[in-house]
Amino acid sequence: MEAQAATTQKMRKKGSLESMASGLTVGMAMEKSTNDAEPSKKKKKRKDKNKQDGELSFTTDRDSDRGARHIVWDNAGNEAVQDNSPESSRSAIPSAFGQARDDDGVEEKRQKRLEKKRRKEQKRQEREMAAQADSASVYEPLTAAQASGDADSQRSGATTQGAQAVEQGPSSIPGPSQTSRESPKKKKKKPKINHAEDGSLYRSNGLGQAHLSSQQDPAIEDDELAEDELSHPQSETVRSFSHAPERSTTRQAEPLSTSPSKPKEKRKSKKGSQVEVGSDHASQEGASSAAVTAVNAGASPQKLSVSSHQGIDKGKKRAAEPEDVDGIDSWQNAENSSRKRGRKKRAADEGHGEAAPAQIVLGQTTSNTDPTLEEHEINETEEEPISSKGRSRKSVVPSLAALTQIAQSNPSGSSVGRKTTRRGPRNETNALHSKEATIADAYGLRHEDILVEKLYQPHQLRWLAEGIGLEYKLGAFSKTEDEHIENALLEFGEEHGLNRDQTIDLMFNAEATKSELFGSLFRAATRSVPGRSNRHVRKHLQTIYHPLAHAGPWTQEQTEALQQAVASHGQDWVAVAKVVGRRRDDCRVRWRDQLTLKTTRPDSAVVKNKGTWTEAEMEKLRNVIEEVCRELSIDIEKRESIPWTTVSARLGGERNANQIYQKWCVMLDKGLWNESDDFMLLQRMSEQTEAVENDDITMIVLRDLQTDQWRFSPKTMRRNWQKLVKKFLDVDNYKTNFAANLAKLNGLRHLSAEERNKRALRSSPGRGVGSGRGKSRKGTTKGLDKKGVDTIDSDEEV
DNA sequence: GTCCGGCCTTACTAACCAGA
DNA sequence: TCTGGTTAGTAAGGCCGGAC
């Protein structure tokens, strides 16, 4: 690496593209042993492209979780392949698996038997652990030593995936030997360390959290727990206690809380008279600790009604909940319909059942008695939600019955999706809790069918990637993909006699989830974006097509409404969202990131949560991050692996996780941007053949452009791309005509600095594509940048 | 066991701001 | 005017539990 750095350094000094490219070729070649490879298909595509172009002097493979294989190109287009990765063996996996399957299913049967045996043994262990847990603490404080891999001390009873990950220690977490470049596509499962808001680490003992949490909270008396359990046998009460962070916070905060000895009253007081520490909202990022701080500072508890145990009374509250009169949150209602059904059932069981309101079907009011539809549909008639992507929501939403009727009445509606085995009888292959069973379940299906027809969880997809080489995409959906989906939705609607709005309504129709039409819709959408899984597509669509999405900045009225709603409803975000008229997540994030800090942390000389970072703060941040990463055996430069909430907590909540993440991104930038970085940016972008071919810059994950030696934050890269297209192409919208713009800018690279500057359409003194070292904004043209990298003048080039 | 949505955390981007 | 820094808004990743 040092040699590589030296090479890069040398290249920078020389400044020419040729030397840069060749230097990088060498540099990248040196990375072979450490870098992972992207899927071979993509690589081949790019290789072919490069050959055609005859321009790119090198290519290198980016990270992948599937091995390291690197191809280096010299300027003449000769290929030097170095394959020191397990990729070849990976590619052999399917055939090997197939061979096993070919043995007349004997192996399969044997696997099933083993699987059955494993399950039995697992259940037995769980029963034993449950028995032990009756008298044991649930969340044991996890010491740094334990967290960092004291496997022996953790093996006892830790059976959750998270605990297992911890047990694996450094081996399960990318170590320093790996590159810091890792695309979102190959995120590895993070060790499930429970990060308390005070920064302490906890792990679960692996039992059902719900059960355990209500049993084990030291702050809760046994009798009241029993009472709660009896009152709300399946309520979200349990869930509200099920998160380690809150529990740990509760524990840690006891000395600070106002009346730790009266947990029962605390839990029942929702409105302000009690500051609740240990919210059921793990994302409060210091909200709880902030609350404690505020209490200590004498802040008005009236403003701190962050009821940590809202869930405790949710069952009762729901039962007594008034009808949704404002009607704004009908879509949240739809989203929560599943839970609501349960609540309504419980409420009905408790004698608090809500009267089933009338149902509106395609504009007609009927005497519907389906309680699962009423809120959603009635509300739709009362208020028109904010449209999504310019879509104008109709004031009346057809019911599932109506949608189905439309589809069935359509001549082509006979093809309303295939028959599925959903809700069907259980069978052996449905036991998908193990990797083997998942692979067995998917075996025989085409990979594209696996992604479309199955609804595997993320970890199952990872298993399939490892087991049968399933390739799938993660990360942000590109503009192109969204367009494909949009077209697929239109086609689907056309096929089933639904207009666009009706098709989109189907996604959010609570009752529709039980219909074949619902599944068909998402299958159609998933098929339109190869490589995406059905599950990802569902989530994506239900995000971007949500009528309350893209609601824009918060107005003062909304903010006040949020504050009032939180004061009265606590962190029951569904209820809060109803009042405020924003999406549930909008409310939660708004509260978490801004209002909590601002309301509970008034400006003071001690607590600072906005503004420029001081040197002392940054130093403290570095130390805390190093500390956390050391404890968790995390490569410090792997941003995605750092638990920012923990870092935030250990910083005393002075900055929230988002602030810290953003700052860390910038702190990791390797030096100031100069014009050789323009070259590198163009080079790296040119390698994104899929994006180039599709003329879609949104296909590029900017972080993927980073290398060990060339790393800038996505923002820095984006802004410099914007700058280039603006200066040389006079293009304001950097997202348009990506391929053409890139080609034009590449064409400028071979010009001298002088020539390039002549072609600049918008002035930018001292700058030009590839004109070498630019003038530092700090006013120096030569010196050391942030990372101690020697910089030189641009004039030396050409 | 499967499907689905809830919830929390992380990541990214646009807009804004202040200083050179 | 340009630049880096910061904030605010939004999308995505992934785990979990309820309903069926």
UniProtKB/TrEMBL annotation:
Sequence ranges assigned to domain Myb-like in this UniProt record: 546-595, 609-668
Biased composition annotated in UniProt, kind: Basic and acidic residues: 50-72, 100-110, 311-321
Main location: nucleus
Keywords: DNA-binding, Nucleus
Residue ranges, compositional bias (Polar residues): 81-92, 154-181, 202-216, 362-371, 405-418
Domain HTH myb-type: 552-599
SUPFAM superfamilies from the UniProt entry: Homeodomain-like (SSF46689)
Annotated stretches, region: Disordered: 1-435, 756-798
Biased composition (Basic residues): 111-122, 184-193
Lineage top rank: taxon: Eukaryota
Coiled coil segments of this chain: none
Protein name: Myb-like domain-containing protein
Protein source organism: Acaromyces ingoldii
